[in-house]
Amino acid sequence: MVFPSKEDVNSSVSSLDSDFNVNERRILDLGKQLLKHRFFIGTLHEKYRVEKINAYRDVISIDDNERHLIEQLRDYLAHIIRFYSQENWWVGITAPGKNSLPNAYCLWVDLPSGNVLGRYWFKIRSVRFQKNGELIVVVKIERKIEECLSTPSPKPLFKTIQAENENFFVTFEKGTEIIGNSFRNFFANVATPKNIKEAALFLGLLVVACVTGLFEVMKFLSEFLIKFMYAWSHFVKASLPILQIILNFMENIFKVLCTLIAHMFKPQHQQQPQLQVDPRYSAYRPVRPRYITYNRPSSRSGVTITELN
User: Fold this and answer.
1) Coil, strand or helix at 44
2) Looking at the DSSP assignment, which residues form a beta bridge with residue 231?
3) What whole-number distance in Å separates Cα of residue 70 and Cα of residue 97?
4) Is residue 272 classed as helix, strand or coil in its secondary structure?
5) Contacts of 55 by beta carbon, 8 Å cutoff, 6+ apart
6) CB contact burial 12-49 (16+ within 10 A = b; e otherwise)
7) Are 3 and 108 in contact (CB under 8 A)?
8) d(Cα 187, Cα 148) in Å, to the nearest integer?
9) CA angle at 90 for the pair 21 and 38, rounded to the nearest 5°
10) What is this structure's pTM?
11) 45-70 per-position pLDDT tens digit
């Protein structure tokens, strides 16, 4: 077992400033925001002893294909270093390039004992501070990645084609045998004379019942239509006078409205100019004509001429 040197530990160690609670809350919130509920592939290595916290931790190296997670870990480490000023805390995240660790980003976690070393699917559950002065990433093992250790030797092409042909003929023979057995079982157990007779009787009764029901439905529909037409004719006879009165009333209302609208929009007539009479002729009175009065004389005398005034 290889132990990390003092420089390796000091590179991941930092401290909180005087405002402990505020910075601790910032670090935890940022870690949960970046890493919580993340799945990744990694390799579980043997345990290493951390002298700073006097405890053993399991080391998980993150796969190089997990580029997004590696970028988030790099940003998280830079943020942690920005807030720490003393070397009294252990950060369970290390960058590659250490002599005693794999050349990859590693998580120093606390896993239950009994796990087999190898590649696994891991899930980050949380990030928290321990009382012993440790910032630890809580990780859960999801399942192991099975790797194929040996590859089968390639078979000759001719033997492969021959085996495929043999398999095809065997499958064809089995299929024809299964189909023949199915037909034999059908005619032996299902298509028996007794079953055919019962099926024919059932179909005959079904046809008779369908025809009888069809005639009954037609009879009911015809009676219903006759009664409906009779009731409809009486309804039309009774409603025609009422409908006529309503239509006449509506017609009168429409005529009145049209008349009112026509009077509203009818142009006004211009007043004709009066004939002015010259005042000199206003006192003119026509002279009555003179009348000639004839006095009938008596029977003894002749005509008497009276002078006009």
Assistant:
1) strand
2) none
3) 14
4) coil
5) 49, 132
6) bbbebeeeeeebbeebeebbeebbeeeebebbbeebbe
7) no
8) 52
9) 80
10) 0.42
11) 888 888 888 888 888 999 888 888 88
